[in-house]
Design goal:
Layout (H helix, E strand, L loop, with lengths): L6 H4 L10 H12 L6 H18 L11 H8 L3 E2 L4 E2 L1
Antiparallel strand pairs: 1-2
Length: 87
Amino acid sequence: MTRSDTKSERKSVQLNITVSPLIYERLKELVELGYFSSVSDAVRYAIHKMIAELEIQGKLPKKGETSFFEEYMRKRGWIKVDEGEID
């Protein structure tokens, strides 16, 4: 994940989470397959996708006119621009 997209993304907050061994192994597999550069990147992707999806569905209010998360996902091709749906 690049740190130059927005001011809010330049600073990071560290989270410590606990997942099952199965989830961790699957995340490592995604890294080994080249989908992500690290397990942290895979978790960040999942969080961005969840927030963008909830915003698009209207279940989570957007912050501002354009959602940072929706824009972030669109730039990376993770949201279908024409349909407004998560891939």
